[in-house]
Amino acid sequence: MSKSAASAENEEYERVRGQPFQKISGRPEWSDYMTMKKQAGKIAANAETGYSWGETTGGTQYGLLADIIGGAEYKVITRIPATDYQNTMAKPALVDATITSRTTAHEREAMTIKQNELVRLWHIRRGLHRGLSANFRDALDEDYYEELEDEFTGYRTVKPIEFLDHLKTEWVLLDTKAKKKMRDGFFVSWDGNANLKRYGKELTKSQKELKTNMIVISDDEKLQWYIQQMYDDARFDQQHMTDWEAKPEADQTWAEATKYFENLVKVQNQYNRMTNRSNANNHDTKVQTTRLKQQKPPATNSENTSKI
Questions:
Q1: N or C of the chain: less Cβ packing under 10 Å?
Q2: Which phi and psi (to 5°) does residue 154 adopt?
Q3: What's the CA gap between 3 and 10, in Å, rounded?
Q4: Distance (Å, rounded) from C-alpha 131 to C-alpha 17?
Q5: In this structure, are residues 287 and 237 in contact, taking their beta carbons and an 8 Å threshold?
Q6: What is the spatial distance between Cα 131 and Cα 148, in angstroms, rounded to a whole number?
């Protein structure tokens, strides 16, 4: 192993170990599993790698997230085909096997540089796996992972996703209580001073994540909850909301709603900058004439069909 490759692996290991999971005492619950999965996913997504399957055509980088959630779920979140993801941890050869006696010096140099980079990326990936393996074992009591230990290699060859799959299939239960808790967790209120565009993206992301666990938040429910947040925030007055409600039914979609309210926020922020007002002051002084008091998710699908 070259010094640069060894250094890259150790640096990645230390980066991961610097972000430990919260200790879970006793048998983990489904919520513990989901929390660990999200934290591991965030750590992996920030790994500095250059795999083609770690980046969308638009340039959004997901690092090694696929190593945590698997190809199928990865496709749902990133739209990167599951077939593009390579889950093998076979170490690349130190020398490109396609180099022959006919390979020119220039070609040989370029191919060697490329092969060295593949080796370096593999070591970063192994550093991530080593670090997460240690994080999982530190967070869990031994009873909940000891079956994964190999007689000779211990936990060295156990992938992060295997720790999570073992928890999911052997120890945690997605029962009615867990499903309700996860579903209720979708309905997060919007802080009027927070970024509205990001809030909308987080709702969509949460909707997709829940779907992978067979928990369905319909598009209508998501839209209804979003509009309710707009009603509940003082920055939008009666005129703003009645203009929205006056739109044709066909135009009252998620795309149109986010576009409409994000544009209102943009205009308000521009006005506040021009008048030296803060969003907080605007939020506190503006009179809300139409305001919903309810702050809980819809209880049934039938209730979700009614318009706000």
A1: N
A2: 65, -125
A3: 10
A4: 5
A5: yes
A6: 16
- Phi then psi for 68, rounded to 5 degrees? -95, -40
The token pair at 122 is 């593999």
DSSP states of 165-216: HHHHHHT----HHHHHHHHHTT-PPPPTTS-HHHHHHHHHHHHHHHHTTT--
**Roughly how many angstroms between the first and final C-alpha of the chain, as a whole number?**
63
CA 100, CA 136: separation in Å to the nearest integer?
45
Output the DSSP codes for 225-264.
Answer: HHHHHHHHSTTS-HHHHHHHHTS-GGG-SHHHHHHHHHHH
Least confident of 7-21, 53-67, 268-282, 285-299: 285-299
| Domain boundaries, given as residue ranges, for the chain | 3-173, 177-304
Measured CA to CA, the distance from residue 46 to residue 62 in angstroms comes to: 7
Ramachandran angles phi, psi of 210, nearest 5°: -65, -35
Query: How buried is residue 70: exposed, middle or buried, by Cβ count under 10 Å (0-12/13-18/19+)?
Result: middle
DSSP annotation string for 76-111: HHH---GGG-----PPPPSS-TT--TTS-HHHHHHH
Q: What is the pLDDT of residues 136-181, one digit of tens each?
A: 999 999 999 999 999 999 999 999 999 999 999 999 988 888 889 8
pTM for the whole structure? 0.70
